[in-house]
Amino acid sequence: MMEILVITGFLAVAMIAIFAADGNVSAAASHTGWIDINADRQRLEVPCGESLFAALHENGIFLPSACGGRGLCGYCRCEVLEGAGPLTEAETKRLSEDEIAANVRLACQVMVTGDMKIRIPSELLSVGTFRGLVERIDDLTHDIKYLRFRLIAPERIEFVPGQYVQLEAPAYGNNPDPVFRAYSIASAPGDNRHVELIVRLVPGGICTTWVFEHLREGDEVKFAGPFGEFRLSDSDRPMYWVAGGSGMAPFWSLVRHMKDNGIERPTMYFFGAVSRRDMFFERKMAELEKLLPWFTYVPALSGETSPDWPGDWPGERGLITEVMERRVGDGPEAEAYLCGSPGMIDAACKVLRAKGVTDERIYYDKFA
Length: 368
Ligand SMILES: Cc1cc2nc3c(=O)[nH]c(=O)nc-3n(C[C@H](O)[C@H](O)[C@H](O)COP(=O)(O)OP(=O)(O)OC[C@H]3O[C@@H](n4cnc5c(N)ncnc54)[C@H](O)[C@@H]3O)c2cc1C
Ligand code: FES
Description:
The chain is an alpha/beta fold and 368 residues long. It folds into 3 domains: 32-124, Ubiquitin-like (UB roll) (Roll), CATH 3.10.20.30; 127-227, Translation factors (Elongation Factor Tu (Ef-tu), domain 3, Beta Barrel); 239-366, Rossmann fold, CATH 3.40.50. It contains 9 helices and 17 strands. Strands 9-8-11-6-7-10 form a 6-stranded antiparallel sheet. A 6-stranded parallel sheet has the order 15-14-13-12-16-17, sandwiched between helices. It is globular. The structure holds flavin-adenine dinucleotide and FE2/S2 (inorganic) cluster.
């Protein structure tokens, strides 16, 4: 009897707690705050209790992100002038002391709890959302796919080579919410009715698993963009390009943009892969090399290093950094553009610096 009373009492207390919590939740949900953006250029009324990143996103303002709001990439920086709560651990790890002093925050880490004043780069206010139809999906290698979308609404996109879009993977399987991931645009800006992407499968990754296992030709996709500062400088300097795997994407856009617009700058493009099955676009690159006297393509296989290897591989062998050691000339004049894994970029930057390429002439996008 005593046990029944204790259990009943416990249940009653639990029910009261649940109802009280429920009351709080609905009170919090009905509570809204105003976000003033760029000194009243735009004002949004948003529900309290969600992140600033999500609140902006729901109102069509897309801050850059490579981690889908998990506090890992540090891309969603903005200035929060009023209304920010305390810094989170993710922010103290990723923001410098100067940035913290200048009110810079990671929008995905800041909760909306009332009125706020924020400042974001004005070009982000014109980032658009797009719907596209998947016109083509090709296997480039065993773990890299080429995607081509025809734009439905709006029907055209303006971008510069090197910029990226945020592709939405809808809820599927065990992933209850849509996620956004960054993919460099592989098409040339001259074709503004299509967007091409080159996507490498990340085992266990949400968006790439969706691309590889669920996305089909004829499906509709959503993405936002364009984003990013990775782009060709205005100079005439000779260039080194360095990429591996899907890091090909921005350079595939760039080389065709240069060809279409008669931009001629001496360019040596290092592209690294492990073995022959990881290499793609060999014929396309050979054709471009023939057509463009200023363009040299240097593909290298790191897994096939033996000179006795009986393959018909005509290119370089060794890690891309070893090949760069051999082929990059000394000279502070050159610029370098790099895309791919953070490890590859860090190692390649070391070689470039040792060859005299200065930091302010090294541009990169780390795919992380
Ligand atoms: C500017 C930019 C441009 C890019 N361009 C390209 C491009 O052109 N092509 C391309 O292929 N990629 C590109 N990327 C990378 C791309 O944005 C994605 O990061 C990548 O495709 C992986 O996404 P995903 O959703 O499949 O993996 P995610 O789900 O994000 O997972 C990535 C990895 O983290 C692990 N992981 C996931 N969640 C957790 C967790 N909670 N704890 C621990 N580990 C976890 C996963 O198992 C996986 O190994 C670019 C990135 C940036 C920043
Ligand atoms: S979106 Fe990656 S840190 Fe905020």
